[in-house]
Amino acid sequence: MYYDNKPDEVFSLLDSDKGGLSSASACERLSIYGRNRLSEKPARNPFLIFLDQFKSALVIILLIAAVISAAVGEIVDSAVIFAIVVLNSLLSLYLTLKAEKSIRSLKGMLSHKANVLRNNMSEIIDAELLVPGDIVLLESGSTVPADIYIFNSVNLHVDQSSLTGESVAVGKQSGVQNAETPVTERTNMVFMGTIITMGRATGIVTATGMQTEFGRIAGLAKSIDTGTTRLQLKLDILGRKLGIASVLIAFAIFVLGLFQDRELLSMFLVGVSLAVAVIPEGLPAVVTITLALGVRNMINRNCLIRNLSATETLGEISVICTDKTGTLTKNEMTVRSIYCGARFYTVTGEGYQPEGKILSEEAPADDAILNRLILTGMLCNNTDVFLQDGKYTAAGTPTEGALVTLGMKYGISSNERTRNRSFAKEIEFTSSRKRMTSIYLENGSYCLYCKGAPEQILACSALYASSDGLKELTPAVKVELEDVYYRMAGEGLRIIALGYRMIEDPNLSDNELEDALIFLGFTGISDPPRPEVREAVEKCRDAGIEVIMITGDSPVTARSIGREIGISTDNAVCGVEIDRMNDDELGEILKECRVFARVTPEHKFRIVKQLQMQGHVTAMTGDGVNDSPALKQSDVGIAMGIKGTDVAKDASDMILTDDNFASIVDGVEEGRRQYENIRRFTNFIISANFGEIITILLAMLMHMPVILFAVQILWINLATDSALALALGTDRSAPDSMKSPPRPHNTDILNRETVGFLLFMGLWIGGLTAGIFYFMLKAGLPEAEARSAAFIGLIIFEMIHMFNFREADVSVFRKSYLDNKSLNIAWLATFAAQLVIIYWQPAQDVFYTRPLSMNDWFFISLAGLSIILMAEIYRVLRNVLIK
């Protein structure tokens, strides 16, 4: 259906026309056909997600402890252990459901857009809002948003591999197909989910959603990759090791107790307590919440994470390879200068507003050559500039928008440029050709208009237009024109050269058509650097991150922008030079060069690969179809959210919602903050657990009664340590986080220096807690009261110890204690919870506690101060030993 009809018949069948649907008609059809999206697999059953939580080895150990506790008559202990396991699983269920909801939300943010004609005007809408009968404008790099019948195309090629398995892009064009033509051979149709690799086209939507060919074969709905990160894998391995350690330690202590002739039941309770003490029950949940909060923080910094592992890798980046236009610069193209007919012209005005003048001191701005140059810029162009919501907007590329605006300032409107002309052919701009050609039929003759990189247009030109008529473009004249080009580019302008020629046959080869052009002149387009970029580049330098600018612009323009933003321009290498280098030579150049000009996507790929071979962790920005290999090769592929193609976005790990280089640097800083906070609270939890183990071991070796029950340790680990760890995960970046080099790629959460501190402080905390229990028993206090004091003492010690993990290298006398509101609230809430379990009768029965006296609190507080003092002593001794 449709593909075997003529365009007029298709318009009639779909009750539409070339001006597009009206807004009212589109809304009505949306209610009939539904949103343009594929059905997704149903959400996972929450009950099954809940059951998945019980597959963890750590949870199984706790459940075994609960069952055995019940078997020996410790019903309260068993019930509390089981209840805490269930609550922890419910928390994990909540976090999983919340994460899936966040993913659905992010999918919405990543949804594709479509350029449609509605009410005879071009507008960008969510692809989900497309309906049959919509007129869609397609261009290179876009993903086809629905099944579309093509009625107008220029050099259109489509990658249909996702639908048909064809590995080579297929040419498409308007026309009528036979009714028996199979899907793979319908050249007048493009299908949802396929990719425009070359050319442009206009077509009418014939099917949306599940009615498309993709929908008919239950196509693939793309989603955000939420695979396990390296950090999570490291923590999983750590958790398994601790689980094994908990069993071994518990068994060893159990055997030791038997040799001490202790009661079997007593030793079992000690073994259960030790097993619980070793296991960091709350760590997985805390890490999950912290990563989720990190994704939200990234969005606030204009970084949309598509792959959770990118958050971790951002903190390891040592080189950022960035495009210039729109990333380092504002992407606000305005023609500032013109050179033609041996004259310079100055252009006033800003942006796409047509207000402005074309001025010259040497002659009035109505020169015939100037007229031809401006007309060439408007005709060799696929962009429209129009008034929308009181502001002039460009529907197309910024560079072409600037050329159209130049024509409007000259008095030629965007719509009038093709009057008395009919479009005949286009030779598309590519990164390798660096030029574009449009051919029009004018008064019975064909005229070819060409624009592109100065060196390309000059190389294709045989004549040049002067005030004395057409003259031969001799090598000497070329040198003079190149000097003009370098002078204009040296002012930071992006230079576009223009030429034209009359032809007889538009069906000649591309090279034959673009040969022997008549050179017209140059336009100098300004795209000033973003004001915040220089500071961002400097911040990268302080953080040990190299910034490499990779641009398709000329080396002169690239150097000029590089100087403005603080990137070294001592060496600037062009793409043609890279072509002549082998990999080893390119590797040597990369050790010094920070500016690459006139590059192609293939050059980007080689640059990234060589940097990685040198041991760098790389981030690469990209926006075009052919950038996807480099984006995938890099450690963090960064696509542009505004100007990026769908293909580039799908290949990326992160999308910049504002296309701003400074946002990349913000993302790196946020990545460093997240990793450092996860490392901090992981070390805190492990240190606290080690303190609990030492407490139990010392009591055992000193032949004291059971000092802590399993339910008490579970309360410490889950309700106390986890709450504080979660708040610690919200801590701000360290003041010097962007003043130090990136961490090595294989950095462990626990290193030798950290382990030393954890062991030292764990021994001290365990010794203090066991000491409180011992002296209270010696003083004749009841065992229950002494145990309560040890229990609360251990909690208070760990609450104080938590501050040792904030600004670890800063003296205790210079730490910031009150600048994290979340942490302060969590600390006070945790303290209040301890008062409840100490003084509220029902909680006393569950946690085996007794009220504490003021003397008890004073003694605990005094001992707690030593936690800070000992951490300070350790820090001083460590610094002395290092020196």
UniProtKB/TrEMBL annotation:
The chain crosses the membrane at residues 47-72, 78-97, 242-259, 265-293, 681-701, 707-729, 755-776, 788-805, 825-842, 857-877. The keyword Transcription regulation does not apply. One of its GO terms (cellular component) is plasma membrane. Keywords: ATP-binding, Cell membrane, Magnesium, Membrane, Nucleotide-binding, Phosphoprotein, Translocase, Transmembrane, Transmembrane helix. GO terms for molecular function: ATP binding; ATP hydrolysis activity. PROSITE patterns: ATPASE_E1_E2. The keyword Amino-acid biosynthesis does not apply. It comes from the Bacteria. It holds the Pfam family Cation_ATPase. Belongs to the cation transport ATPase (P-type) (TC 3.A.3) family. Type IIA subfamily. This is Ca2+-transporting ATPase. It comes from Seleniivibrio woodruffii.
